[in-house]
Design a protein that fits this description.
The protein has 1446 residues and is an alpha+beta fold. The protein contains 47 helices and 24 strands. The strands form ten sheets. It has a four-stranded antiparallel sheet with strand order 6-7-3-10. A three-stranded antiparallel sheet has the order 11-12-15. β1 and β2 form a beta hairpin. α21 packs parallel to α28 and α35 packs antiparallel against α39. It is globular and about 120 Å long. The two termini are 29 Å apart. The N terminus is likely disordered.
Length: 1446
Amino acid sequence: TTKKKSKKRMHADKVADPPEEVRPDVAVTSGPGNETEKARHAARGKQNNNFMNEDKRTSTPSSQTEKAASNDEKEQPVPMTSSDPPYSSSPPSEEIVQFVVDNKEPNPNNNNNSSPPLSSPPPSAPPSLEVAQRNAKKQQFRGGKANYWLVSLPQLGTMGVGIQLYFEILLALSIGFSIMAIFSVPSLLFNYFNEGALLKLDSNIWSKLSFANLGFNGEILQSKDCVGYEIGTALNVSSPDFVPGHIDCTAETQTFVGDASVSVSAVAAITTLGELLASITFILTLFFISNKVKKLSDQVDLENADPEDFAVFVRNVPEDVTAEELMKHFSGLYDLSHRQKTVPDGLTALGLGIRKGAWYFFFWLIFISPIISYALDAGGMNNSVSGGVGLGSAILIALVIAGRIILKGVKIVMRPTPPEEFDQWCEEKKAFELKAMKKAEERAKRKGGDAKVAPNLSENPVNSSTATDLDLGIDVSKKPDPQPVKCITNSLNPMYLDSWVAEVTLVRPNGRVIENYKHSQSKMKKFEKMDAKLKKMPNMTEKAKAKLAKFEEKANKAEQKLTKSVDPTCTTKAIGAFVVFNCEDSQKRCVEEFKMSNNWFYRMFQPMHMRLPRPEKKFGVPLRVDIATTPSLVYWENLNVSDNERTLRVAFTSFATFILLVISFALIYAGKIAGEVAKEMQPDLATCSGILPAVASGSLDFPAWLNLTHVKEKDEGCGAGRFWVGYSPPYDYEAGLPQFEVTTDTGAAGVLARSDITESTSAYGLCDDPCVDPAADDVVCGSFSCHWKELRATKGLAEPPEACKTYKESDVAGCFCLNLLIDTVATDGLVAAYDMLKKPEFEGDICGEFIDNYMKAQSLGIFSIVAVVVINVVLKATLTGLVNFERHANGASYSNALTFKLTISQFLNTAMIALLVNAKLSATHKKSIGLDSFLGELGLLDGEHGDFTRSWYISVGSALTLTMVIQLVVPHIGPMVKGLIVRPLKVALGKGKVDTQQELNDLILLDRFEIETRYAVLLNYLLVCSLYAGGMPILFSLASINFGLSFLMDKLALLRYNKKPLKYDAQLAGIVSGILPFAILLHIFTAAYQFSTPVIIEDAQGEVQEFYDGLPDLSVEGAGEYAGGVLMQTTFVSPFVNDMAGDFVAEMRGSHFLLDDFLPRVVRSNVLPIAFLGSLFVVYLILDRLFGQALHIILSNYLSKLIPSLTYKFPDYKMPQPNFTGLYSAELSSEQKRVLRLYQKLPDEDTKLGFYLSEDSKKVHCKWVAGTPDNVEGLVGGRKKTWEVMRMKNIHNYELSENPEYDNCVEFMVKKEVFVRNEGRNVIGVGEWKKMLEDRADKTGAGGAAGVAPASVPATTVVKLGVEVVEEKREEVEVVPEVVEEKKEGEEVKVEEKKEDEVKVKVEDEKSTANAPDPKVEEEVKVVEEKVVEEKVEEEKVEEEKVEEE
């Protein structure tokens, strides 16, 4: 039973093309005045004609806008009539032809030419909230009721491949960074659980999770914190609260979980291994995303026929060019019936020679000339002479290459036809597969197994001698069959017959009119709103009338201004043209040959046969040809903007963006300066923990538990404004502090009396008086070592063990307040500590100013974080307007520009400005790059951090991490708040205040889902995390959360709170895959630099490896200053190369900071693997750029030995799309194959639209189906053409009047006679019709009367209105009973429709003959129209119920 049911479903889907005698759309009739045809025409035009009288055409923009808004982007548009008239062999009357042409139906989405929405009330009815909500739902994906968890990414891809790719990239990045976060877990644990690197005041969660908390920090540790410290070892002073230390102060180990410890070398090794694995995962993520983008783009391009697959945009055309000229030119160039002449890159010999010569010149100058110059320098030649020889060699090689090409001439190649190219592919495929089979057979024989193997598509194993074409993956049924235009129903213009161009749409210079019209709409809407509001008043007052007149006057002025901008020559001039080919191969060849034409220089060398021939131009007109975008994304108002004007606009917006970034830099820099001023008023940590205790105790081995105390009882003895602060206990300041313990020059212990230190013997004060002034910033004190050093010569002392350091007298009070703040924060928190320290009873008198300065510094740090986030939001809003100002020609160009500008500006604002503001470059380094004077004048690169030190991670790194945490939620707050709170409130508060349906529609209108700004947020987060994640591994986890959260929230916004997006292509996804390599390089090399900071992370062996043996200079002076340990002698290369490199480095040492600083850091054993991985990736990128496909083949051959699935496979033949004007016949999509495999039928949504399987189940055809939006009476059951299938999805051609976004503007321009609707669609008269039929009959050999096929001819000549002649072979078709029953039911319906049509025709005839309307006739018309309306209302309700049920 299951087999029978499956077979029955399969058979129903594989209904072959109906035979011509039973196909209503190809029925051959005779008779010059067939009344049935007239009735059918009248019935087909019924819906269009009901509401398209002159009054409706010239209605106000408000009514047109209401219609467009109520029907915008419906899930199932209102049923439409078609432009395709029924087939007929007899010439129709001129009235019928004229009627069909005038009422030719465009895209079903074009609301201007469709009936008014049945769900909308008449203009006089009050606004309906139900109608507005229904219209809003129709703008959403599946009416806003799609199941969130069950909607798959391919289903989202039905709104455009760009939408699916956006979510695919988010998902891939989320998974990839999750794996990277797992590899970074050991590093996070080492960072978090380590002790002895940060003060409690600095140990916030973000600094503890970074490299700031790694390793050993001797500046903050005291003896009491070290393992082995015993109480009483210093000054024999004990403390009952003493706790033994547990930190290894030898820096050999660091603390871990609990009391455990781990060696620093193990920490370095494990951290490096995790970073290597994370970087490799990053690279694999790049490969996956790039492959996904390419594969999905190719798949969508193969499975979907779109107008842009056949079209090109031609510019630089003469103003008086005609569509016929362009048609003949491009049809002759890309005639696929015979071989075509083609030249490399579409250039003449001179142009090709200049291009090749310039390329070789720069290549030689950059890579070869330096080698020649260096070799000549080594031979003793003068530097200037050797440089001249290098430059001369580059010029010589360029001239030789260019001269050879120019003298020899360009090589003209005769390109084979598509069938011949398919045959060549078959031969290459066969040879490749046979070779692979023979290799497999040889391997099998050597292993003693079966010699039979299975190739790619074979189910049963075969050998190379018995393999057929099908076994080898060659399907000859896929051989392309390109044909010229045989049907002109799309254009109704006979000039396209037998041409390889299907349509030519001239672009007129009416962009200024369109732009001005859009600007005037706001004033017009304001006037209409006021008009509707005042007219609702029962008695309009004089004041209201005056106000209305004032608004009307403003509206009239706006309209007059708009009228003045109208150029009467708009209908005669041309600035470009959209050329639609009949075959996709023609379009691809055109784009390939004209790929250099977008550059004015190369257009000078365009070959003669590619130029447009003109009588007045001896050498023709060079053309510029670009790939056309999808028709719905063409910005018609911007097409008249020249390249020079657009370049100036882009330059202006770039400058404006730069100014915004400068403002951001200034704000952050100002915050930094203010923060530094506040920090200068705070004591240094080293002063508090080391200098002051040493001065008080007189020894560098002071008690670790010493703390400053404030004795309020002794403040009176200090005087006004001074406080008693000292180390009491244990010291008695009145009895005197201990003398200084020193070492004599003989090495013996000695004592330095405090009385010996006076103003005459020391430049610094001793500052051991406990009475201190918190505001005394002018008194400079010296450390213990300063006095030791100054009295060294007179007292015979040895060199002091520490360097001299100074501090201020106020630092004593500051250190007391700092210690008090640390203890209070640890117990009560920062806010409570601030309140307590401000109170006089709790040290507020001494610490009040200190705590204010501290909080000011912290607030400025928070200000910098908030400033970055706010400026990012401002950049998003501002750059959107700036990119609009650039006036891009299409939506794809606009999206790319906006994404790129937002990404770069937000990345610079978030990551780079903070880095530059806080960076410090030494004077030597500034001088080495030649910017010492410039940077010095601007004060740039003069910050606090010269490296990724602990202080950098504490201040800059923590702020950056907090910024990224805020950026997790900020992009999603706006859409969610707007969808959940703002929009419902607006509807609730404003629904009773609106006066028109349009106002209510606008009130409830949803925002469009835009991925341009979302891509910018994604890329900014990706780049920032990639840059700094090496030293702050928590960024891996934040990036993973961000991408996953964006996936979930954006999917929710798309399905619930936004209307359907525009049809995005794969270009934005291509930008992401192009930026990913840059992000990987940023991450790897920045991580290598962060890992090379030895004061934080030690070498894996505790040492710095010397890069070259025999270079003690570099090792000791260069590397030793970083590690301070014994260096390992390691030879990496042969002695000869080692000596040569050693001499070179020794000679260059000191000349550049790269050799002095970077080289010793790179060769560390915990850095070298990361740097090596980055170098390998750079080499791969270069090789991939130069030898892409060959490199992939080589890599796949080697990797396939480890992973068989990576074996290189011969590329499949890419099937072209079916002919534009031919019958639709396409390959099955991946989704259709999946459903067919599971359920033995096509997807239900495809079947409803008329798609069905061919007899061999390899192709998908499409037929006219009753009840579909574009159904045409009389054509049900007939096959659709390719352009008719395109029309089901979107706009199918490049006519301005077809785009619903420009409906009102088109009506205005038609009224002002500056626009011709359906220009180029000729009206065919009866005489011309007869003559054309006779000519076509002669060409086809039919003979006899036009449209009548003699019995001797085995084909049927079918003539269709619009001049179509098609020859099709009759085939015996097996019709299943279900199909017969459907046809019978269809015939009964047709009889009823025919009666209605006859009534309608009768009514129209009576109207045309009588001046006064007949009441009976009007009543009949009204009954028919009401019946149609009721039926459509019922259909709409049924569809809505189905959507709700789903």
